[in-house]
Design brief:
Keywords: Repeat, WD repeat. This protein is an all-beta fold and 254 residues long. 2% of the residues lie in helices and 57% in strands. It contains one helix and 24 strands. The strands form six sheets. The chain has a four-stranded antiparallel β-sheet with strand order 1-24-23-22, with no helix packed on it. A four-stranded antiparallel β-sheet has the order 2-3-4-5, with no helix packed on it. It has a four-stranded antiparallel β-sheet with strand order 6-7-8-9. A hairpin with a 4-residue loop joins strand 4 and strand 5. The radius of gyration is 17 Å and the shape is globular. It starts with a strand and ends with a strand.
Length: 254
């Protein structure tokens, strides 16, 4: 893997690359969402829409989804700066998904019709985005839910937690169907349905064979916990962020 770094700005919790490969969006523990220009290597805009730390962001079809410790997930209608012809991004809030406690992670299914959230108390919630209603609530971790993701076919959800557990949930029934344990908390991951690439507390990237229940490769990454990870649809580029305040760009080489 080859990588390139942007100058640090704030301690980051989540990051992703917008379509067009010109802008990186990152969420921060200081309650804000930042927009970085790759070409100029600096922050170009800020969204201030939460009352507490923004723990995770997702993007699909010009909509931004932001989870926060203020116990909400907010859905924003967004127009990137490159589409407005200005340096400013335009956002309007469309919906607010309320939780009882802090939300630490969210993820969308492939069609962006479902959203899964994980809370500080260990509950995984599956939402129907077309009606903004709860489908299932599953208490499956003994502490904070670190990350969640849908399988490519949207039939299952994988979650990781502070307790070191990796759980697979059936989306239709809300049933916990399998569970495995790692040696340390895995803060974030990406999942293609079989193989998991996770970011660990120690800063390593771990490649998991989920069906075999084992780690197949370890990659040295950040100097400190890996807090966020993202991969493009072509599975050719990966972005990671960590407590070392670095954004790393990885190019997969086969």
């Amino acid at each position: 893997m080859d990588h390139q770094s942007l100058p640090p700005h704030k301690a980051l919790s989540s990051c992703l690359l917008l379509p067009g490969d010109a802008t990186v969006i990152s969420s921060s523990w200081d309650n804000n969402v930042y927009f970085y220009s790759i070409a100029f290597g600096r922050c170009q805009d800020t969204l201030m829409g939460h009352d507490d730390a923004v723990s995770k962001i997702c993007w699909h079809d010009n909509r931004l989804y932001s989870a926060s410790w203020d116990s909400t997930v907010k859905v924003w209608s967004g127009v990137p700066a490159e589409m407005t012809g200005t340096r400013r991004h335009q956002f309007d809030m469309l919906a607010e998904l309320e939780h009882d406690v802090s939300v630490d992670t969210i993820s969308l299914n492939a069609a962006s019709t479902l959203l899964v959230s994980g809370t500080r108390e260990g509950t995984v919630t599956i939402w129907d985005l077309t009606t903004a209603t709860v489908l299932h609530q599953i208490p499956c971790h003994s502490g904070i839910v670190c990350d969640t993701a849908f399988s490519p076919d949207s039939r299952h959800v994988l979650s990781t937690g502070e307790d070191g557990g990796l759980n697979v949930i059936d989306v239709q029934t809300g049933t916990l169907i399998s569970s495995m344990t790692s040696d340390e908390p895995q803060r974030c991951f990406i999942w293609d349905g079989n193989t998991v690439l996770s970011g660990s507390q120690s800063g390593e990237l771990l490649v998991w064979d989920l069906l075999g229940g084992k780690i197949s490769e370890k990659i040295q990454g950040h100097k400190g916990a890996v807090t966020c990870i993202w991969m493009n649809e072509q599975c050719s580029s990966i972005i990671t962020g960590g407590k070392d305040r670095q954004i790393m760009f990885w190019k997969l080489q086969y």
